[in-house]
Amino acid sequence: MKLIMAVIQDKDSNRLSDALVKADYRATKLASTGGFLKAGNTTFLIGTEDENVDNVMTIIKDNCQSREQLVAPISPMGGNADSYVPYPVEVQVGGATVFVLPVEQFEQF
Ligand code: 2BA
Ligand code: 2BA
To answer: Could you name the domain of life of the organism this protein comes from (predicted)?
Structure first.
């Protein structure tokens, strides 16, 4: 068994949950925050058998898209003026960042 952890954009989260339910995969959604943008994103935990991993990956790929996001300049007011970026910076936020971990034990009580 594997645990698939997928960090995706909030905008894709409902689409992905619907697709997973439709394909009969179980999942848990966690509200998370990106360390860089400090904006909300969604982390999916999907526990599934090894042979389903490729199919789940395909579902994630098909339902999550990469987007450009502008990082607003952070005001130096009350902050550190040395790190002030006076213009918005565009970053490419990926459709999904996915980790696949081995599951040692799985129980449901
Ligand atoms: P939920 O996804 O909200 O599911 C609540 C209950 O609905 C499940 O209870 C199960 O009885 C049923 N259910 C879920 N998905 C289904 C499906 N595709 N078809 C038919 N019935 C379905 P539990 O199995 O006790 O799960 C309780 C909660 O534990 C789940 O809440 C989910 O958040 C998490 N979970 C369960 N299995 C998981 C897994 N393999 N990976 C990740 N999270 C899991
Ligand atoms: P954030 O940390 O908010 O990062 C959003 C996007 O900003 C990243 O997109 C990347 O393009 C850029 N970025 C992140 N850190 C950077 C840095 N130190 N310098 C320059 N640009 C940087 P993605 O790579 O697609 O990541 C999207 C989200 O996935 C991340 O949100 C984070 O929550 C998660 N993530 C990505 N890689 C991870 C990792 N290795 N471990 C844990 N979470 C990760």
So the answer is: Bacteria
